[in-house]
Automatic annotation (TrEMBL):
One Gene Ontology biological process: DNA-templated transcription initiation
Similarity comment text for this entry: Belongs to the sigma-70 factor family. ECF subfamily.
Domain (RNA polymerase sigma factor 70 region 4 type): residue spans on this chain: 104-155
Designated name of the protein: RNA polymerase sigma factor SigZ
Alphabetized InterPro entries for the sequence: RNA_pol_sigma-70-like, RNA_pol_sigma-70_dom, RNA_pol_sigma70_r2, RNA_pol_sigma70_r4_t2, RNA_pol_sigma_r2, RNA_pol_sigma_r3/r4-like, WH-like_DNA-bd_sf
UniProt gene name: sigZ
NCBIfam families associated with the record: sigma70-ECF
GO molecular function, one term: DNA binding
Residue ranges constituting the RNA polymerase sigma-70 region domain according to the UniProt record: 8-74
UniProt entry keywords in alphabetical sequence: Sigma factor, Transcription, Transcription regulation
Gene3D superfamilies registered for this protein in UniProt: 1.10.1740.10, Winged helix-like DNA-binding domain superfamily/Winged helix DNA-binding domain
Length: 184
């Protein structure tokens, strides 16, 4: 098995490196993501039945790992960085304006019915899994998922009524323009 993994790394290292570095702008983070790809490949190598499909299998792992990276990054926004008024975009946030929208969305979240607010906050802000939320709030698993989904949909509708929003493939806000004063 180790020889197979060595052969995979040798064959696909440069190709996957290019793929990951195109998706993750920070080179240090991209290197970490690439290491996670190889770690996952090592852990899951018994799942690949047909060696002819190794390339596609590795790309699938890479896509999922990049997606996980952006999900984790989205959840890591410290509360003290969420401002009441969006400030100037810093160099680190230049292509991602999620923080600029965060304070407005946070205010609008407080206006949602409590049955949607709490599951959404536990899921997004605290990073709880639906099973934890359903147990904590005495809901079914699908009830937890539904409430989080409905809160997301309502917040999205509120934001789209207020602003013209452009997002990237990972759901990060890359540009927004206010239609009205409501989100100022």
């Amino acid at each position: 098995m180790a020889a197979e993994l060595d052969r995979m790394v040798e064959t696909f290292e440069q190709e996957l490196r290019g793929f990951v570095f195109k998706k993750v702008a920070n080179p240090h983070d991209a290197e970490d993501v690439l290491q996670h790809v190889w770690l996952k490949a090592l852990q899951q190598q018994d799942k690949i039945a047909d060696v002819a499909h190794v390339r596609g299998w590795l790309y699938q792992i890479a896509r999922h790992t990049v997606t996980d990276y952006y999900r984790k990054k989205r959840m890591e926004v410290p509360r003290e960085h969420v401002q009441d008024e969006p400030g100037p975009v810093t160099f680190e946030e230049a292509d991602n304006e999620n923080l600029g929208c965060a304070s407005y969305i946070q205010r609008e979240l407080q206006k949602l019915p409590e049955k949607y607010q709490l599951p959404f906050s536990l899921y997004v802000e605290k990073g709880w899994k639906h099973k934890q939320i359903s147990t904590h709030l005495d809901l079914s698993l699908s009830g937890s998922k539904t409430r989080v989904q409905r809160a997301k949909r309502q917040l999205k509708d509120i934001l789209l009524n207020c602003c013209d929003v452009e997002v990237d493939a990972y759901g990060n806000v890359i540009r927004y323009e206010k239609k009205r004063v409501c989100c100022a």
